[in-house]
Design goal:
The complex is a heterodimer of chains A (about 550) and B (about 375).
Chain A lengths: L2 H5 L8 E5 L9 H5 L5 E12 L8 E12 L12 H5 L5 E5 L5 H9 L4 E2 L15 E3 L21 E3 L10 E3 L5 E3 L7 E3 L2 E3 L9 H16 L6 E3 L7 H4 L7 E5 L6 H7 L9 E5 L10 E3 L6 H7 L6 E3 L9 H15 L6 E6 L4 H9 L9 E4 L8 E2 H6 L4 H15 L7 E4 L8 H10 L4 E4 L1 H7 L26 H4 L4 H23 L15 E3 L2 H7 L2 E2 L2
Parallel strand pairs in A: 11-12, 11-21, 12-13, 13-14, 14-17, 17-18, 18-20, 20-21, 22-23
Antiparallel strand pairs in A: 1-4, 2-3, 5-19, 6-22, 7-10, 8-9, 15-16
Helix pairs in contact in A: 5-16, 10-12, 13-16
Chain B lengths: L2 E11 L1 H11 L7 E9 L10 E7 L1 H14 L2 E6 L16 E8 L9 H22 L2 E8 L1 E7 L2 H7 L11 E8 L15 E3 L2 E7 L4 H8 L14 H13 L5 H7 L4 H6 L3 H10 L9 E6 L5 E5 L8 E4 L3 E5 L2 H7 L15 E5 L5 E5 L1
Antiparallel strand pairs in B: 1-8, 1-14, 2-7, 2-8, 3-5, 3-6, 4-5, 9-10, 10-11, 11-12, 12-15, 13-14, 15-16
The chains are: A alpha/beta (about 550), B alpha+beta (about 375).
Chain lengths: ~550, ~375
Amino acid sequence: MASVKVNDLAKDDLSWRIDYDSSRCTMCGSCVSSCPFGAIHSKVEKRRKVVSEDITPNPKIIFQTVPVISQTIDEYMFCRGCGVCERVCPNEAIRPVRNSDARFGMRYRGALADPFKRGGRSNLETDGRTLDKIKVGRISQMTDPSLDAQRHTFDILSPFGRTLPAGEIPFSISEDGKLKFSGDAPPVNWIYPIIIGDMSIGALSWRVWEAIAIATAYLNEECSIPIRMCSGEGGVPQRLLKSRFLKYTILQIASGHFGWNRIINAMPEMVEDPAGVLIKIGQGAKPGDGGLLQAKKVARHIQEIRGVPKADLLSPPNHQGLYSIEESVQKMFLSLNSAFKFNVPVAIKVAASSTSVSVYNNLLRDPYNIVGGFFLDGIDGGTAAAHEISLDHTGHPAISKLRDCYHAAVHQGKQNQIPLWAAGGLGKTGNLASDAFKMICLGANGVFSGKLIIQLAGCLGNDQGKCNACNTGLCPVGICTQNPLLVKRLDVDKVAENIVNYFLSVDQEMKKLLAPIGNSTLPVGRSDALISTDKNVADRLNIQYAC
Amino acid sequence: MCRIGAIKSKNYIQPKTALQLMRSQQKGHDNSGFAMVMQDLGGVFEKYKGLPILSMACTDDGIKIAEDILHKEGFARVFQWAPQVFPREGLKIEPMPNYVFQVYQLPKLYKYAPESEKEELLVEMRLKIRKALDELDEGFIYSFWPDVVTLKEIGDPSDIGEYFDLWSENKDFSAKIISAQCRQNTNYDIVRYAAHPFFLQGYTAMANGENTFYEKNKNFQKNLYKGYLGFESDSQCFLYTLHYVHKVLNWPLIYYKHTITPLSFDEIDKREDNAVLSKIRSSLANLEINGPNTIIGVLPDGSVFNCCDSKKLRPVVVGKNKDTVIITSEVSGLNDVMPERNWEDDIYTHEREMIYVNNDLEVQRWHQ
């Protein structure tokens, strides 16, 4: 027998197998036309059938040629298990089933001599999340009454911007014995402690982007929840830059500097300052990799927004020409601060790493008082496309590093001066409020979350290898694609509504966690409110161990 | 729950008034201790107004340790007084061997030194003695400051009064301001340092309640000033914030309230002084308190004040007659000590208010 057959890619190698029931199929074609990957196709099969046409049994064999749906076996057009076929089938005739014997990653590399790329997050989770091993263990009772979450008023806001130590605020005492503020101090915006994380336009479709912007504006103006969204790299549409809604947007300048010439050109026409500027040095999802937007996703409007030709757009792993922490402060912070006349806080985002604390320690000593925030992004975050090896095997959890940074600030007596914001898998199990609350107790001033927003927009992927096709530009629900047909699948209003509703519930849930510990403001650094049932976690994070 | 009270009078009063004030408020199980700080002293200390008085409870070796440290630095003892004790079987008290009240002359080198240097020296000395006593477990030092004595004891307040003969008239031991607490805090081990009132550089503070932001306050305060240490009680944080805001930052007293219970962001936005208030809220977020408590404080100039948490979850009442003002936890104490006052003039401090009593005993209500 020819060995070539044995070494060919087979269904059994693929991560997902199509479970197809031809007896239920009406051949409507919905599944085939909705699968963006071409992972299924129609074909004909010759079928053997036993029939009896006489009054008494008289079996005979006939052969028929019938149309069927078949799985494509191909290194490019393989099933990602997104399940869109199942969603569109009117007859429950088709669905993807996880193949536990899969070895596709290995076969792919062997066949193509190319690293396997995908989106999503680590698919190598073997242990539960640290955050889920932490509980809110301090419940107010007799001496310090808990509050009524429904009736009490809460002041749930976090600072975004550099805070001066009290002794350095330019106060004088006026004749009436009151303090008078005269002079300059860095801008501080008080915002909701959860920011919608930076996801770039270009990677995401304009419809998702618009939905998030609509939700943000609605939450601010109709629900009085001062949520901010971060632009991500890739520029911002001109009409948002010139609108009054810009005040809810944190503009990101990342290592590719995409779209910044457009932002700067729009400045004379801006009617509002942005909510802040975030300089992305690194990201947690694929630390040290930098982003890559494939040419096939650089549609015409993306070219315009980013100010680039249709080509692969590489965002380098670091800002070119930036070689030290001091430089980051001097060059970037000073120039970006002065661009907005020192009215807009400028923060920095780094990937959680063994060196994060050193960076934070150094920034705390920043002589210009100009670093408006330290955003720490951990391994579990991110939606972007990357090499699988990066997604699964690089990165650093955010939680212990956040705790280290907080302790470093405490050690210097400078906590709260450069607000700590942290993310990386927050809301991963569906409850962002509890994750945010725990991170805040561990020392964060606030948190940011991106992937959850994508889930709310309808992303079908998960951390067990489902979909994860962000790298293909063929997102089956129109989120991570610029393909006009796919983008059309996304209902902007519905996505905006989901996001608004989710944050309304998060706000309620934050209160439900604040109330029992008796706090009406955010318990930043109140780790005494937390316990862990895991001794190692308790020891590492310096919280109470409980069993 | 602690019972606290401060008595400020035009006349010299004796500890028995403070004991009486506390006992009226005492509940059945509140027998873990009694402590008081006396300021603006009469009796035997009246003629030593400008000189620092060492207040300690310690062993014989403890006295020696403290004296050696002070002598080495150039301090000279000019007077000492010890309360006479009356031990008897059955008293619920865990006394120390010695209760030391010694008056010292400052080192000659400091004769022309500015006030601030002298003040720092006194803190340094207290910290040094405390460290030395702690290392050998020889006792406790509560204050080292002019015109101030501090007494803290573990046991039943009534028995403590008997032991030190505080229930009788004793003109030797009197003051115009006495702040006192019965029952030590119960959150932690009962240790003498944990008993209120706490004292630092002329500032006295005590609190009735919990400080749920204790850890957050402590983490921030411990780096602000050398004298912020101990933290045996979550209520010490209130003193340190008072000292920091009023003494270190030199802000007017009203900003103490703005620091510990800041207005909500909505309210700050509506205020004319929003630039000041929002800056304070940003910079001193870690000094905010968020627990049920009421705070009574005494400033170095002898004025007394009171404020509450922003939800007003703990009781406090202010009452006065023509020469005394009392701020205390519960009205029962006030009724017992000052029954003849006009009860209608009593003030139950509300959540956005500071009560300030100046040296003319004028009671002011400051709205935050």
